[in-house]
Amino acid sequence: MTYRRSALMEERLANNRDRILLATRKLVSEGGFRDAQIAAVATTAGVSTGMIYRYFPSKAELFVEVLSAAVEQEIEILTEIANRPSPAPTRLGAAVVSFVRRALAGPNLAYAFIAEPVDPEVDTARIRYRKKFGDVFKAILVDGMEKGEIPQQDADASAACLVGAFTEALVGPMDPRRTTRATKEQLTESIRTFCLRAVCGIWKSDDA
Amino acid sequence: MTYRRSALMEERLANNRDRILLATRKLVSEGGFRDAQIAAVATTAGVSTGMIYRYFPSKAELFVEVLSAAVEQEIEILTEIANRPSPAPTRLGAAVVSFVRRALAGPNLAYAFIAEPVDPEVDTARIRYRKKFGDVFKAILVDGMEKGEIPQQDADASAACLVGAFTEALVGPMDPRRTTRATKEQLTESIRTFCLRAVCGIWKSDDA
DNA sequence: TCAAAAAGTGAATAAACATTCAATTATTGA
DNA sequence: TCAATAATTGAATGTTTATTCACTTTTTGA
């Protein structure tokens, strides 16, 4: 054989893959899956369309990987909050605020995460990830109920409701461009209050 | 002129239109907008594809009309509940339960209402209708706050959260086919509890 | 019954994209 | 430098559907 991948080449390949993922993520963040056609991804990543198929078997799998990476990162952050030693309501509020702040901060995948992707394969993944997302909140609820910090309730239903509540409040009403910092903080606070009261009955204000 | 529409003909035309709308609604209920291709709609309605374009300028406008009719009917029911003389929390709980029960009862547009349609034109309509939907709940909240039945809160945010909460709880977790009547009632109750506590702090149980 | 006008049909057209692949360029080790 | 191999390209292909339109059938009023 007169060809074997050098370390440099290996790196360049990995680089290409990352560039494609990044480009996809960017497009999806800005305009949803709708705007992330293969041609657009290729242009944004600075590669050819054929290139993309060297790294990903199909558009659907590319989308799934983008979604998965985004959700896993998000879940990691929220899990850290969920495992803190503070009281369950405090952790829950902190988790909600953490997610909402990031979502309001700039273009992100929140919308694509909620919305229905065109592709059934991606859709399946999306539902799975939403469920996983809810599980973080469910864990806080279950823990809080055990410790008597949160009243008894249907943890599955409450977790789903929580996820629905703060995602809807984010997607629906706001044009992200015409929103000041203060308005955003106000909305964040309103959502936190809603979510805390929803599961605790009473709103507690301590941050974390 | 040797042709003018007779009353009978007029009726048949209206009938065709309705059949097309009904067929679209059926397909969307069962498989989302994805499954409602013009060809499928035509077959289901028992007309030709060309026919559809005699009654609707485009697929998008057909979809919007289906969505609009469904939402308006839903809003009418909920508005009636919102205008009852009972205390605001009672009305709110009743409205939530009313919507959830219908959604769980069988194939319906709940999913399509929440999910992202493929077409931007339909998407715009969808967001508008979701907002309208939230307004019914907002009205109950505002009224309840005035009467001191509901604690002061950001009515816009709470309304959005409510809509998100009960729609998510409906779409996410359940396979409608593998769910018993009892389970459905249980879920309905869990959602009601969540929503009531979310805006009132305390859960009251009276039906309506 | 007849001709004008409209309703109705569905095969053909068109547009939008994902995917492929023959050809080209780059990399590697000898 | 060279041949072998891999990476890369982007025009061509295939697919999926909305939409159109030339043609057929039905309806209407005289």
Give descriptors for this structure.
homodimer, 208 residues, Arc Repressor Mutant, subunit A, Tetracycline Repressor, domain 2, 9 helices, 73% helix, 0% strand, DNA-binding
Helices and strands in order:
The structure is a homodimer of 208-residue chains.
Chain A: H1 7-31, H2 38-45, H3 49-55, H4 59-82, H5 88-105, H6 110-114, H7 120-146, H8 155-171, H9 181-200
Helix pairs in contact in A: 1-2, 1-4, 4-5, 4-7, 5-7, 5-9, 7-8, 8-9
Chain A binds a DNA duplex (30 and 30 nucleotides) through helix 1, helix 2 and helix 3.
Low-confidence runs of at least 5 consecutive residues of chain A: 204-208
Q: What would CATH call the architecture of the largest domain in chain A?
A: Orthogonal Bundle
Provide the number of structural domains of chain A. 2
Q: What is the CATH C-level name of the largest domain in chain A?
A: Mainly Alpha
- What is the chains' assembly state? homodimer
In this structure, how is the largest beta sheet of chain A organized?
none
**What is the distance, rounded to the nearest whole angstrom, between the alpha carbons of the first and last residues of chain A?**
59 Å
CATH fold node name of the largest domain in chain A: Tetracycline Repressor, domain 2
**Rg of chain A:** 20 Å
Can you identify the CATH superfamily of the largest domain in chain A? Tetracycline Repressor, domain 2
Proportion of strand residues of chain A: under 5%
Listing every helix as H and every strand as E from the N terminus to the C terminus, the arrangement of chain A reads HHHHHHHHH
Helix content of chain A: over 70%
How many strands appear in the DSSP assignment of chain A? 0
What spatial form of chain A do the alpha-carbon principal axes imply?
elongated
* Count of alpha and pi helical runs of chain A: 9
Q: What structural class should be given to the helix and strand makeup of chain A?
A: mainly alpha
